[in-house]
Design goal:
There is one protein chain. This protein has 248 residues and is of the alpha/beta class. The chain has a single domain, classed as 4-Layer Sandwich (Metallo-beta-lactamase, Chain A). Helix content is 22%, strand content 28%. The protein contains seven helices and 15 strands. α3 (67-76) packs across α4.
């Protein structure tokens, strides 16, 4: 399972693209979230892979407003294969509304179909070679974390928000957890912090924890001290940069 961090920044980060992750496994490629700058991250790759699936964790602009541009690009490339878009409830309506606002009538002229799939918490969906599970997180709007698993590897992606019991359970035994950590310590009810992430993983069997979506103040603090990164019990903690890659 190959992981590429297309973006690791928060909504208005002047130096990094919005958080978005590319997963390549078993001949399929999946994008996790597609914000304002995510399509640029995807298109800037020297070797673009065939994109099969897009997961949208929630409907804030820095997590899904890149979809109209992505869909426009794929249409200009005369794509014919369907594109699966997975999300929580009401995803199809919100995405089609955004597409219509960005490019009126494009949806009626696409050279390929958009296959919308709603994931339900507590269920497992088999799709494009992976098992998909979601769980709610605490955010300012309805939002879901995601666990995807192959036969041998598992990855958890938080989207935005604080972990709940159901989402923490999805982290168990994951090879990689990608979690938003907006601040060093908890200072908002709707975003997680580095301290909260480190508390959540205690007692869980997690190989690696990648912390993303940090605000500017937190990044400046981290630039002055690297004490947080490294081993936390049995988990390797790190702060990926845009375009970083790793193999699970």
């Amino acid at each position: 399972m190959k992981i590429t961090f297309l973006g690791t920044g928060d909504s208005c980060d002047p130096h990094r693209k919005n958080v978005s992750v590319l997963i390549e496994d078993s001949g399929y490629t999946h994008m996790l979230d597609c914000g304002f700058s995510s399509t640029h991250g995807y298109l800037s790759r020297s070797a673009q892979t065939q994109l099969d699936t897009v997961w949208i964790s929630h409907f804030h602009g820095d997590h899904f407003f890149g979809l109209p541009q992505l869909i426009l690009h794929l249409n200009m490339q005369k794509r014919t294969e369907p594109l699966a878009i997975l999300s929580g409830i009401h995803g199809e309506e919100k995405i089609l509304n955004a597409l219509h606002l960005a490019y009126p009538e494009l949806a009626t002229k696409l050279s390929f179909s958009l296959d919308f799939i709603e994931l339900q918490p507590g269920t497992i969906r088999q799709h494009n070679g992976l098992s998909w599970q979601c769980a709610p997180v605490i955010h300012s709007q309805s939002a879901h974390s995601l666990r995807i698993s192959s036969d041998t590897k598992s990855l958890y992606y938080s989207g935005d928000g604080k972990a709940m019991n159901e989402s923490a359970e999805l982290m168990q035994n994951c090879d990689l957890v990608i979690h938003e950590a907006f601040s060093l310590k908890s200072n908002t009810p709707y975003h997680s912090s580095i301290d909260e992430c480190l508390q959540v993983i205690k007692g869980l069997s997690i190989s690696m924890l990648a912390l993303v979506h940090l605000n500017q103040e937190t990044r400046e603090i981290l630039n002055e001290s690297s004490a947080i990164s490294g081993k936390q019990e049995n988990t390797t903690v790190f702060f990926p940069k845009d375009d970083d890659e790793l193999i699970l």
